[in-house]
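Illustration 12: cysteine--tRNA ligase.
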Amino acid sequence: MTKRKEPFQPLVEGKVAMYVCGVTPYDFSHIGHARAYVAFDVLYRYLKFLGYEVEYVRNFTDIDDKIIKRANERGETVTSLSSQFINEFLLDMTELQCLPPTREPRVTDHIEHIIELITKIMENGKAYAMEGDVYFSVDSFPEYLSLSGRMLDQNQAGARVAFDMRKRNPADFALWKAAKEGEPFWDSPWGRGRPGWHIECSAMSAHYLGHVFDIHGGGKDLIFPHHENELAQSRAAYPESEVKCWMHNGFVNKDDKKMAKSDNNFFTIRDIIALYHPMALRFFLMRTHYRSDVNHSDKALEIASDRVYYIYQTLYDCEEVLAKYREDGISVPVPAEEQKMIEEHHKNFLDDMSDDLKTTDVLDAFMNLLKAINSNLTDLKKLQQKLEQQNKKKQQQKKQQQQSQKQPADHIQALIALEAELKDKLSILGLMPPSSLAEVLKQLKEKALTRAGLTEEELQELIEQRNVARKNKQFEVSDGIRRNLATKGIALMDEPTGTVWRPCEPES
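Figure caption equivalent — predicted structure in token form:
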């Protein structure tokens, strides 16, 4: 409301009440939905990490013109259609590692509360009924547009409904709609009908969180008219109604235009995770600050996929090495250099996340930890080789040569501490994979092969062709195979044991 950054002070010490507007389930969810629910999942997770008990309510608008139209087209009931796509949405959220909210109410389970709220608004003289419809009177509410800061003449009549000439003011919006032929309906004091769009969230948020609560979230397209109208009708019924903090996430754009089902320029979450690992999509969405618009592109998704592969490969390599030492009970302290790095990383993480969820900076900061892990892994390997060679020499000579350098135990302790810090912060952000690191690396490689249009067998055949060409000194042929694969997002690496591959950002 103030358009300023302010310290977050919950109404009740140690508790947070948060309401986020949910989907209208008539189709598969697109990545604009993923954008919103990943953003608020990050907030939910971070508040829980800080020790708050969070009551997180996210609704389903399971009665709506679009649902009715689609159900009629498909020859099924509104309930069966909405239930199907609610289940599909929940599957998508699980794939993206969004924690389930505390409550997920459906509009159709709260008709009684909606009717009660409309009745209260009418008793307060802020709404009027006409031929079975009930409209909110914006002229009766001087605070109208205080959230969006719009002027009344900017209002677009309609939004989700056709303009009705019977309204006292073109900006008046429907609280209750009279039943039309063939549509679901409920009995009310104004006749059979169903709720308007905006009243639903006012009724459900008040029912679960009370008239005053901490956080109300949604996409920035909801600021007007949805949240503006919610605010007006809630206060019209109960003047004490207040949301302490409104939070809105940016859009996902395709070619600089908002991605939307109505414009048919959208990708579903299913479309994206058919080609990219869900953790790559989550990482991609978190790479942009939640309030800013995300520009969707294959390149940005490739970069995100490459980054998560690097994170998980580094952690996997670390786990493999540490598996030999975890039971040893090493008693040396964490080396000062790594200890300082971990303490700074932890502090910066808290500073960035507490400053309006700066996930972009947080994700970038992981690179220092990853480099430190890889550096310690390399140094440990070299040191172990050196020590094996020194075993043939006198004990005293060996001690003299080692006095100025880290011992294996130092590297091992550094790796244990760095790994713990990285995994801890990835978990808070919902970026630790649900399966083993080996499994998620396998999945990332499978997605990379799908994008490259290759099977594992076809790739191994190309690697073998390259090996033969190298053996025959046909370097143009072998280099051509490597370059061609690199353009498809497959990097080849020649190691002593043979040629291995990993996904990479495609070379242009």
